[in-house]
Amino acid sequence: MKAAVITFPGSNRDGDVAKALKQAGATVAHIWHADTELPAGTDLVVLPGGFSYGDYLRTGAIAGRANIMDATRAHAERGGYVLGICNGFQIVCEAGLLPGILMRNADLKFVCKRQHLTVERTDTPYTNAYTKGQVIDVCIAHGEGNYIADTETLARLEGEGLVAFRYADAQGRVTAAANPNGSQNNIAGIYSPKLNVLGLMPHPENLIDSLTGGIDGRGMFASLMSGKRAA
Ligand SMILES: NC(=O)CC[C@H](N)C(=O)O
Question: What CDD domains would the database entry show (predicted)?
Fold first, then answer.
């Protein structure tokens, strides 16, 4: 699989996600946000975590309008994979690739901690290596992870099975107490209708080594490499 990791001014997890992709067997090109084209044969575009443009205006708002986002949108329209992690999720929402928006965390505090998630479905290109009902232990680090969409959009996401992950406790219970940022329905990540675009706030790329915290993030990259599409 050929991946293109986009770097914006203020990105800081581009190296981490490149490492996770290479560990899983992908080849990785590093692309600057001002570029207008993706390398030929790109399968996956990754918008990494960080603080693009210092989170000014609204987080992701400036990066969402970067040159490379036109090529990224065209790639997604062709059915190509686009993965937005944390600031990348904020950017894909701002770019119109996914609906809704990430607001300031409900308590207005930056949250940096371990967090359990439910894997809502395992028949997608991003989650086929996980087992049905699996609860994964990853980490979160954000100030603006409070996912909000209008009532109609939220009903569509739920009705069409487009919620990818939810914040949960260690037993997989999706409760208000396990919600770190106030997101509606404990939503931690969502898919596009064709399941080729995924945006999520947690950082699977930082859970790929048992020496540094665990390996529950590996499943996402292994899923992509397996080449299995949605059922
Ligand atoms: N780790 C990150 O990507 C941070 C995301 C974002 N800039 C925030 O604080 O909400």
Answer: GATase1_FGAR_AT (cd01740)
